[in-house]
Amino acid sequence: MNSKRGFLYRLRRELQHGSTIFVLPAALLIILIVAFPFGNAIWISLTNHEVANPVDKFVGLANYINWVEQPSYWSALFHTVLYSLSTVASGIVFGLAIGLSLHKIRGGRDFWGALILVPWIVPTVVSTLVWSWMYNPVGGVLNYALKALMLTKSDVNWLGRPDLAMLSVIIVSAWRYTPYFGVVILAGRKQISDQLYEAAVLDGANGVQQFFKVTLPSLRSVLLLTATLIFVRVMYDFIVVYVLTKGGPGDATQILTVLSFTVSFNVGKMGSGVAAPMLAFPILAPLIFIVTGNMVKNLVGAK
Amino acid sequence: MSRRFVFVVMSVAFVLASTFVFAGGQQQGQATASSSRAAPLQVMIYKDNPGQQVPTEALVKKWAQDNNKKVQISVSDYKVRTTAVTTALEGGTGPDILVLADFEPYQYAKGLLDVTDLANKIAAEDGGWYPISKTIGDVNGTWKALPVYIYSQMLLYRKDLLQKAGVSVPKTWAEFSSALQKLKDAHEGVTPFGISLSRSFDGQQFLTSIILSNGGRVLSPDGSKIAFNSPETVKALSYVIGLYKDGLINQDALSWTDSTNNQAMLSGKLAMTFNSNSIKLQAEKQFPELNPKIGTALVPAGPNGVVSNPATFSFAIRSSTKLPGEAKSLLGYLFENKNYAKVLTDTYGSTGVSLKGFENLPVWSEGDNMTNLAAVPTAHLFAPPSAQASQVSNQYVIINMVADVLNNGMTPQQAVAKAAAQMQQIYFGK
After folding, report:
1. B103: distance to nearest CA of chain A, Å?
2. Which residues from B are below 8 Å from A159, CB to CB?
3. Could you tell me if A231 and A88 are in contact, meaning their C-beta atoms sit under 8 angstroms apart?
4. C-alpha–C-alpha distance, residues B184 and B231, integer Å
5. CA-based angle A239:A240:A246, to the nearest 5?
6. Do residue A137 and residue B83 have CB atoms under 8 angstroms apart?
7. Could you tell me the pTM of the whole model?
8. Does the beta-carbon distance from A266 to B82 stay under 8 Å?
9. B230-244, B251-265, B400-414: which has the minimum mean pLDDT?
10. The complex's ipTM?
11. B171 near B301, Cβ under 8 Å?
């Protein structure tokens, strides 16, 4: 009874404050366009739903258990995490180089900024197809260039060796996301007061020390947020790997989304196909909640 | 009026408005559905290298004109087709007539219209279906799809290179490997044989053909257990690995795609490959001086004879269509003797043929076109059509064995055992 009265009291306070009313429309929209499809996906993963089969049977966790028991699933999960982490790590390193260089440039910053964004703007399918031609063992421009520069005598089997195949797909993914990191870092760098650098110089800090003691700590929250969002996005990326290798050679680049697409769309087992990436959700959910929670706190000011 | 009151009213209004908009959308959807009686017949047409979409689209438009019907055509290549078919069957919207690949008539049987009457009528008029067509279209006694393109893999070879090396066209797999050795010895800078050994249709069809012609099989004859882990399968896989290790096959085969062997053949770097006739079609358009030098022949024979693992495409009708009569009428028209003959003639027979009544078409006697016809009776699937067979195929379980041996250090026996275990999981669970 007390708790009920407490709830009503809190509800009344919220209504008096007005904040809940502000949030309500947005919350309803999110429920409609995010929560409903997500809930539906969870439901499908708990059934034996197949394409064109009107009768679904509730199978509980059978689809999940089936995946957990398959070594190929764990291999795909490992590849997915490796692919995502490598993309984010490369994006941060090269994004820092680009963003901080752009900040230093005096003239034509807008032009260079726009040019660097091209990989981000070009449709993924188009840019990945171009990369597949570049990697092509028959007349691909990468091997041609390496041989012309005398860096190799024989053709490099970019997509045919398991180690190189994973590296090759990571290169394309990193190339795609680096501009985004670069622009975000540039925006973050602009927010850092020059006084901090002047104080560091007065304290005798050199360029490297300024980078590690001033720049990086000041960009920390921006990097953390961007890295988390891109990590989640790459975890569910599909096109790059599918276009370049379809998950091969063997299972060397098999990632969860390619596995899920194959089972859902090529084989028609929607219940099983949806369950595969859903199993990765427990990895992502805490990450998202922690980072977005911190972000909201920073934005509205923690009490 | 307090600010709080305004917020409450606005929020309630928003919720109500959203509800009305949502409900309105639903009503509009129903209106569209109800008005779909007057809607056009939506037809999916398959687009591929032979260019069958051109005569097929013309035929569909002519049928619509002659019968005063509205049609809406969507031309789909292989990649678009997969999602378009799934979306249509899941959502009950989109194309009424679909193009299904390989095992899909079985996978999606519950969402497809029974076309047995039409299949029997077409068979009576066009000389009967080839066995592979019946295997694909006849789902447990009910025809769910009408096979139209049977792409058989064939041997494509450079006549001039074989002649210079004193090599005749190989008829068996044993002759094939010795021919490759002679080609390698005779021609420096030319790869004797090239094909993808990665996740590709070409590679999978190539390896499957060797396995089947050597007597290997995925399922036991009664279908009760996996029979893939056999000496015959190991022998077939070892044969391919041997070709690779002897340098008779392109050493970057694990990075090739379905189109790389086309490029390599057309650039003059290959003496032989396995493919559908699309390489010759490309050569005719882009390299007319090279085309006469490229010959075609049936896949070599193993102890079980000549076996080619085909890629097949079939027309089917979505069971939720509002226009079943029109859809059947159009498909009947497309399979009319003169119309199917037109598609075969315009594509030089490269699509393959699903019915026996076209064996006397003049197109087969032109150039090397006869191989397209001769290959159809050799077409065999690696297992009876089913969702499980589709999963084995689409997860590249068979061709992945090559990477397991070449990249992951397995022996052929271990790779076959691993593939058999995956098949066991797919077919029977644990």
Report:
1. 9
2. 198, 254-255
3. yes
4. 29
5. 80
6. no
7. 0.82
8. yes
9. B251-265
10. 0.76
11. yes
